[in-house]
TrEMBL record:
Origin species: Geodermatophilus dictyosporus
Cofactor dependency: FMN
Metal-binding is among the record's keywords: no
Name used for this protein in its record: Dihydroorotate dehydrogenase
Gene Ontology CC: cytoplasm
Gene3D superfamilies referenced in this protein's UniProt entry, alphabetically: Aldolase class I
Gene Ontology molecular function: dihydroorotate dehydrogenase activity
Domain Dihydroorotate dehydrogenase catalytic: 200-436
Length: 444
C-alpha cells in the first residue's frame, strides 16, 4: 500500500476527509486572505484532492499537494506518523503550543557515520551537523527530536534572565521569491519539503521562559543527547553598559548551573543595543566591537575555566569583522555565524507580513552567499592570526551540497535552521552521503 493510500485510510477512519478542504482554507486564511484568484485556485486544488481521495483515485503524484493541504489544515503530525517529509514546526500554532512537540517525522533510529568522530569545541561528535539556537531547539522534546534524527551539534534556544513573551503571530513564513528591496512573503506561501531552495522569514522577538522553567528543562535536554552529541546553550542579556554585561554574565552562570558545558552568547539578534535604528529595530550587539568585547570578557570571567564559550555573530562587513576577531579570539572557544539577515518583509499586497513589525530575519537559501562569505573570511582571519577557535557555520544549509560548501570553507561544524525545519531528514541525508568520506575526522 502506498503512503498516499495509508494516509487516505487514516483520514477516513478519523472522519477528517470531508472537512479537509475547509480546514485547509482556514489555515491558508489564518493570518491574511490571498487575492480572490489565488484563493479560488487553492480551493479548487483542495477540493479536487479530497474528491480523488474519497474515490480512492489519489496516487503518488498527489503526495506534494497532500502534504501542503494536510500541513496547512493542522494535520502535519498525521503525515509525520507515516514518515512523510514534513516541516517540523507548525506555522499556524503558537510559540507555546509548538514547544510541546515537533510535528515533523521521526526516524526509527539515529543516523550514524559508523565509528567516525569529528572534534568540535573539544568534544568528539558523531557527525558535525546540527541545529542552531532557534525555536527548533526550544525545549527538551525538540532537542530529543533533532538528536534522534541525526543532528549532533545542537544549540538550545536563547534564554534570558527574565521571562520574555514572543511577538504576536504570525512568527514564521516561507519566502519563496528572490529578495529585492524587500522580501515578499505571504503567510500562505509554501515551499515543498526537501526543496534546497527553501528560504523563510521569522519574527519571534527572542522569547524566553523564566529561569526556573528553562533551567529545569535544560537539565532534561542535556540528558537527552548521546555522549557523542553536543548541546550548547544560547544566552542573551538586556540593558546598557555594565548592566548589559552583568545580565549576560548572570544568565550564563544560570546556564552553567543547570549543567551547560558550552555557553553561546547571542550577540547577533536585535534588542541588545540601546540606540534604535530609524526602522525601530535595534541593531545586533556585534556591530559594536567595544560593547561586544566587554560582554565576552565579563562572561568569560564569570564562568568556570572548563565551561566552553562561543560568540554568535551576524554577517559583518570586512572592516567590522577584521576589527572584532583579534580581540574576540583569545576569549572564546568558538565563533558561530551567521544569524538571520534583517530586512524589510512585506506581503504581496505591500502590507507588513508581521503586522506592526516592518523588519524581520531572512534565512535559508537566500542567505547562503552571506554565510559562505563570512565563513571564509572568519577562517582566513583565524589562520592569519594563529588563533585556535572553532567555527560553527550556518546560513543556507538546506541539502548535502550546501553543508559541504560550508565545511569546505573551513567550518568545524555546520548548523541549519530553515533547512532542518523544512526537511527533518537533512541530517540523515548528509550522514548517508558523507559519513564515510567527510574529511578532518578524529583518528581512532
Amino acid at each position: 500500500m502506498t503512503v498516499v493510500a495509508r494516509v487516505r485510510d487514516e483520514l477516513v477512519a478519523r472522519g477528517l476527509l470531508d472537512g479537509l478542504p475547509a480546514a485547509f482554507l482556514a489555515g491558508v486564511t489564518r493570518f491574511a486572505t490571498p487575492p480572490a484568484a489565488e484563493l479560488g485556485a487553492l480551493r479548487a486544488d483542495a477540493e479536487g484532492l479530497a474528491a480523488r481521495l474519497a474515490a480512492g483515485k489519489a496516487g503518488d503524484a498527489d503526495l506534494p499537494l497532500l502534504t501542503r493541504v494536510l500541513f496547512s489544515a493542522g494535520h502535519g503530525g498525521l503525515l509525520a506518523a507515516h514518515g512523510v517529509r514534513t516541516p517540523s514546526y507548525d506555522l499556524l500554532g503558537s510559540y507555546r503550543d509548538n514547544l510541546r512537540t515537533p510535528v515533523g517525522p521521526r526516524l526509527p533510529g539515529r543516523p550514524r557515520a559508523g565509528g567516525r568522530r569529528w572534534r568540535v569545541l573539544g568534544r568528539d561528535v558523531g557527525f558535525p551537523i546540527g541545529v542552531p539556537a532557534c525555536v527548533l531547539n526550544g525545549g527538551e522534546e525538540w532537542v530529543r527530536y533533532h538528536a534522534r534524527n541525526g543532528f549532533s551539534v545542537l544549540t538550545y534556544k536563547t534564554v534570558r534572565s527574565r521571562a520574555h513573551e514572543p511577538n504576536a503571530q504570525p512568527n514564521w513564513t516561507f519566502a519563496p521569491r528572490p529578495p529585492g528591496d524587500a522580501v515578499v512573503s505571504d503567510p500562505w506561501d509554501w515551499v515543498a519539503p526537501g526543496d534546497p531552495g527553501v528560504s523563510t522569514v521569522n519574527s519571534f522577538g527572542v522569547p524566553s521562559p523564566p529561569p526556573a522553567e528553562w533551567m529545569a528543562d535544560l537539565e532534561r535536554s542535556l540528558a537527552a543527547v548521546d555522549g557523542d552529541q553536543l548541546l550548547l546553550v544560547s544566552v542573551m542579556g538586556s540593558g546598557d553598559g555594565t548592566d548589559l554585561v552583568d545580565d549576560f554574565a548572570a544568565t550564563a552562570r544560570l546556564a552553567e548551573e543547570a549543567g551547560a558545558e558550552v555557553v553561546e552568547l547571542n550577540l547577533s539578534c536585535p534588542n541588545t543595543l540601546s540606540a534604535a535604528a530609524d526602522d525601530g529595530v535595534k541593531p545586533p550587539l556585534c556591530l559594536d566591537a567595544a560593547a561586544t568585547l566587554a560582554v565576552v570578557e565579563g562572561v568569560r570571567r564569570a564562568l568556570g575555566d572548563r565551561t566552553g564559550l562561543v560568540a554568535k555573530i551576524s554577517w559583518l562587513d570586512e572592516d567590522r569583522l577584521a576589527a572584532l576577531v583579534p580581540g574576540l579570539a583569545p576569549l572564546v572557544d568558538g565563533v558561530a555565524a551567521i544569524n538571520t539577515v534583517a530586512g524589510r518583509v512585506v506581503r504581496s499586497d505591500g502590507e507588513p507580513t508581521f503586522p506592526g513589525r516592518a523588519v524581520a530575519g531572512l534565512s535559508g537559501a537566500a542567505v547562503r552567499g552571506h554565510a559562505l562569505d563570512l565563513t571564509r573570511r572568519l577562517v582566513a582571519l583565524r589562520e592569519a592570526g594563529g588563533h585556535r577557535f572553532d567555527v560553527l557555520a550556518m546560513g543556507g544549509v538546506t541539502d548535502v551540497a550546501s553543508f559541504e560548501a560550508l565545511w569546505a570553507a573551513g567550518a568545524d561544524a555546520v548548523q541549519s535552521a530553515s533547512g532542518a525545519f523544512a526537511d527533518p531528514f537533512l541530517a540523515r541525508d548528509c550522514v548517508a552521503a558523507l559519513g564515510d568520506t567527510l574529511p578532518r575526522s578524529v583518528p581512532r
